[in-house]
Design goal:
3% strand; 3 strands; 13 helices; proteasome; 26S_Psome_Rpn12; mainly alpha; Serine Threonine Protein Phosphatase 5, Tetratricopeptide repeat; three-stranded antiparallel β-sheet; CSN8_PSD8_EIF3K; PCI_dom
Length: 262
C-alpha cells in the first residue's frame, strides 16, 4: 500500500469523525475510490493483504454513512453492495468492524422504509439470532417492523428520538411519510373536515407549516380563519356511504394514538 493512499485514508477518517461538511468528505471519497480501484482494492481479492482490505472497508463504510447523511439512497445501496464482499467473504481474515452492525441495521431500515417487507424478513433470517437479539442497531428496525404491524404509530414516531445513530433518523422519517399518507387516507374516508390542530396531532406533525405543506400535497383545503381542514373528497361524501363499523374502528384507533401521545 502506498503512503499516499494511507494518508488519504487517514484524512478521510479525520474529516468524518470531526463532522466536516459533506462536500469535502464526498470529494475525498471520490479520490479514494479511484485510488482503491487502481490498487485493485475496491473489489477485494484473495491476493490482497488484510491491512489493505481493512483500509478499503473503512473507506466504503464512510461512504455508506455519508450517503445517508446526503439523503442519497441509491449511493448507499452501491456502497453496501461493495461492502458485502468484505463482510461475507473476508470476515475470517479481517478484524471485526465497529461499523458493521450499524450498517446492517441501516440496510434493514432501508428495506422497511421502502415497504420491502419480504426482503426485510429474508435479510433478517440470514443473521444470527443472538446477534439480532443483543444488538441495539438491529433491534431498532426489528421493533419498528413489529410496531408497524401492530399499528402502534406513536411508537414509530418516538423511535426517531431513540435511534442508535443519527443516520437512522433519515429512514424513520421516510417511514413516517408512508404512515402519514395511510392515516390521511383514513381521515379522508371518515371525515368531511377536521380542526387543523387535530389533523396535526393525528399526523404526528410538530408545527403548522408542516401540516399546511402536507395538506397542499394531498389537495386538502384549509380555511385560515376557522383553522379547519376540508378534505378534497368532501363534496362526494354524500353519494358514498361510509360503513359505520369502519368509521368507529378508525375513530377508536385515532383515540388510542392521541392517548399515547398525551
Amino acid at each position: 500500500m502506498s503512503a499516499n493512499l494511507r494518508a488519504q485514508h487517514d484524512a478521510l477518517l479525520k474529516s468524518f469523525s470531526s463532522s466536516a461538511d459533506l462536500t469535502t468528505i464526498r470529494s475525498q471519497l471520490t479520490k479514494l475510490k479511484i485510488a482503491l480501484t487502481e490498487a485493485g482494492l475496491l473489489v477485494p481479492s484473495p491476493e490482497a493483504k488484510p491491512q489493505d482490505l481493512a483500509l478499503a472497508r473503512d473507506v466504503l463504510e464512510v461512504g455508506a454513512f455519508c450517503s445517508i447523511r446526503a439523503k442519497d439512497v441509491e449511493s448507499f445501496d452501491r456502497y453496501m453492495n461493495l461492502l458485502r464482499a468484505f463482510y461475507n467473504d473476508y470476515a475470517s481474515v479481517l478484524p471485526a468492524s465497529q461499523n458493521h452492525q450499524p450498517l446492517l441495521g441501516l440496510s434493514l431500515l432501508r428495506l422497511l422504509s421502502s415497504n420491502e417487507i419480504a426482503s426485510f424478513h429474508t435479510a433478517l433470517e440470514t443473521l444470527p439470532p443472538d446477534l439480532v437479539r443483543d444488538s441495539p442497531y438491529l433491534q431498532h428496525p426489528v421493533n419498528l417492523e413489529r410496531w408497524l404491524m401492530e399499528g402502534s404509530y406513536s411508537k414509530v414516531w418516538r423511535a426517531r428520538q431513540q435511534a442508535p445513530r443519527e443516520e437512522y433518523s433519515f429512514f424513520v422519517d421516510r417511514l413516517m411519510g408512508t404512515i402519514r399518507h395511510e392515516i390521511a387516507s383514513c381521515e379522508e374516508k371518515a371525515y368531511d373536515s377536521l380542526p387543523l390542530s387535530d389533523a396535526a396531532t393525528l399526523l404526528f406533525f410538530d408545527n403548522l407549516q408542516e401540516v399546511l405543506s402536507f395538506a397542499n400535497e394531498r389537495g386538502w383545503q384549509v380555511n385560515p380563519s376557522t383553522q379547519v381542514v376540508h378534505f378534497s373528497n368532501a363534496s362526494s361524501a354524500s353519494t358514498h356511504t361510509i360503513p359505520k363499523k369502519a368509521t368507529i374502528s378508525t375513530n377508536l384507533q385515532f383515540a388510542k394514538e392521541l392517548e399515547s401521545i398525551v
